């Protein structure tokens, strides 16, 4: 087993190359030359006896060994990079904070995030990605990820922020055509704007475990699209209540199941820093915990 404690430069070169996508970009991050980065990675490959990258004139691609090595090493280097904050916790958080959150929650979360959190910590550089897919936190170089639903990536620190209620809503125009459902048994007969994930229609779930695959002619892979389809009268929608609370209050959408028990979707925040959590990540997690409670009450 090779001793990698004296290969810090090679490990940093490898991780930065993977995150940046090229030796040139990694060299800019590390304030060195592409040749030096390439040699550091080659020296590391020789030491561990495995090829980490497949090199071509156009791109670098991780080998299977390289992928496994990256997912093991990158979190360790993140902890090492953040370890100085353990001995100077009073210092104001600074540096880049890269965040991923669902696009459908962004209109509810970003105004407060920009209006309060960003102003409270002016030395932080916020890098925010909006996507409804489950990003690979380590491979895609995110500090922290907000996701509704069960975590799909192992070996991460998961903090449960809140349980968000679900709702089934439809437009008044649709209900004029179909009539309002009087019981749970009437729900499968309604046309739905259906939520899809990886091309598969997702079932509507009730709190007692009952499920049904909705029928309908509009399939959407984001909550925002479901809302627009519902507002247009193209189908009922099963989605987070906080996303449609304003529309229900305004009467543009109608809550079809106020007395039917629906499940709650967990909202989690995830990171890969282990026990040595940078102040910027810890403060963001604490801030989001308060905001999540607000979402749950909408």
UniProtKB/TrEMBL annotation:
<dbReference type="Pfam" id="PF03466">
    <property type="entry name" value="LysR_substrate"/>
</dbReference>
<protein>
    <recommendedName>
        <fullName>HTH-type transcriptional regulator TtuA</fullName>
    </recommendedName>
</protein>
<dbReference type="GO" id="GO:0003677">
    <property type="term" value="F:DNA binding"/>
</dbReference>
<dbReference type="InterPro" id="IPR000847">
    <property type="entry name" value="LysR_HTH_N"/>
</dbReference>
<keyword id="KW-0804">Transcription</keyword>
<keyword id="KW-0614">Plasmid</keyword>
<dbReference type="InterPro" id="IPR036390">
    <property type="entry name" value="WH_DNA-bd_sf"/>
</dbReference>
<dbReference type="InterPro" id="IPR036388">
    <property type="entry name" value="WH-like_DNA-bd_sf"/>
</dbReference>
<comment type="function">
    <text>Transcriptional regulator of the ttuABCDE tartrate utilization operon.</text>
</comment>
<keyword id="KW-0238">DNA-binding</keyword>
<dbReference type="GO" id="GO:0003700">
    <property type="term" value="F:DNA-binding transcription factor activity"/>
</dbReference>
<keyword id="KW-0805">Transcription regulation</keyword>
<feature type="domain" description="HTH lysR-type">
    <location>
        <begin position="6"/>
        <end position="63"/>
    </location>
</feature>
<dbReference type="InterPro" id="IPR058163">
    <property type="entry name" value="LysR-type_TF_proteobact-type"/>
</dbReference>
<comment type="similarity">
    <text>Belongs to the LysR transcriptional regulatory family.</text>
</comment>
<dbReference type="Pfam" id="PF00126">
    <property type="entry name" value="HTH_1"/>
</dbReference>
<dbReference type="InterPro" id="IPR005119">
    <property type="entry name" value="LysR_subst-bd"/>
</dbReference>
